[in-house]
Amino acid sequence: MTLHNFLIEPVSSQPPFGSGLPAESEQALAATGESLDTALLDSYSQAVIAAVERVSPSVVNVEVHQPSRQLRGESGERRGGGSGFVFTPDGLILTNSHVVHSATRIEVTLADGRRAPAHTVGDDPATDIAVIRIDAGGLHTVPLGDSHQLRPGQMAIAIGNPYGFQSTVTAGVISALGRSLRSYSGRLIEDVIQTDAALNPGNSGGPLVDSRGQVIGVNTATILPAQGLCFAIGINTAKFVASRLLRDGRIHRSYIGVAAQTVPIHRRVVRFYDLAKESGALVVSVEDRSPAKRADLREGDIVVALEGKPVAGVDDLQRVLADVRVGVSCSLTLLRRTEKLELTVVPEEVR
Predict the structure, then answer these.
(1) I need a labelling partner for 324 at 20 to 30 A (CA). Which of 8, 61, 115, 193 fits?
(2) Is 128 part of the annotated catalytic residue set?
(3) What is the pTM for the complete model shown?
């Protein structure tokens, strides 16, 4: 073929990547006169509708009364509120710690309009997670998903009660994973989900849901006046915290004094050292006079195990630290560049 013939070779009028639908489906759409764009948009809408119908009956409005200090030093009471969702048939509700912390009275409004008093089972300001309980029958529960399986770009649906507007739905995508967010207690919350599903005051404590109607996060914060910068605590973190709150009423945390983030580990290193996981917790900073500093942990180290338990990231590190005993030496396995090291660290309890 000559260059001239190559340049004028006819170009197909079909889209380069196709519609992604089977040929018979495209023919059926053409026969009904329905456009492909309309069909795809309708599929998106149906996914959102199905997820909302599955989760909405479990979403509640949480109204709280908290003590406040008046201008002249007199004691008073202020009202606030947020959202939550029922996750067990016996009335346990997940919400944010900052919604119910220090509350003198809590009242919950269910999706069917019923109102019931609630009491706090436990709250953890360090992760901004709280569990409250109501005594009511006929409750709808919501299935909890797995935030470790999430991917950027995945659909995310937020349901809550912003400004008191009950059962408000917003939809978007997961913008990023593994973010860090400073909690109201001043502690960094790791592995936070960033989404552009719009959140407003009153959404706090409500569920962030995937297209299957499973809760993947607990909505917690926005950055104002930024647009589309909203955050949720991963549901795996929330499940872990809730289990400890139910058992002990609070989280007993061991502390070693590092800031970390989840990172992948090169496959060659994983195979060479026969590591149990393909990711670890990268040490970003080490606090002075901390157990980690005394153990000679350094910035750039990747923690892969603690007390023989694999550490695939920040969530795992926090979970294992919650299990180890305060003041008792434990082994810390890490990668320093390409060398595998074993250190001994003596955790302290978080004050």
Answers:
(1) 193
(2) yes
(3) 0.67
